[in-house]
Amino acid sequence: MKRGLFVGRFQPYHTGHHQALLNGLKKVDEMIIVIGSSKESFQPENPFTAGERIEMISEALKESKIYEKCFIIPVEDIKEYALWTQRIKSFCPNFDIVFSNNPLVKELFEADGYKVEKMVSDNGHIDSTKVRKKILNKKSLSDVLPKSVETYLKKINAQKRIKSILEDEIKQ
To answer: The domain 3-171: what is its CATH number?
Structure first.
């Protein structure tokens, strides 16, 4: 059985992430999805908790009927990069390949002996910053989020949260 590793903050999990995950699953039997910065939440760049990110990713995986092929593991950051891959490995089942577009993640895992491949999305470039702005401005999200994630974010009133966080940031 071949396992892949996919690390991200997923603030929020969007269709770019999802399409890249689906493409990665064509090369491995299972995927370990590591939620990075798991202790970070209620911040402009990290508005959602690790638990909320687990729920939104789980809903998208169920929607695509691939939930059984994935592990979702939250891992808090450490700023000592020489130890970072060891930390990831200590939280995760064994894996054979790492999927990432982040040059630092690539460098760190390659230095640790792993093959690293770029995550490929057929949806063009979508980034979470733009998605959060769309949420804040009550724009349509159907082109950037899996339907189940859009539903989940409405349920937790993500627009209100992001607005409150940004208002609080301005006051400081």
So the answer is: 3.40.50.620
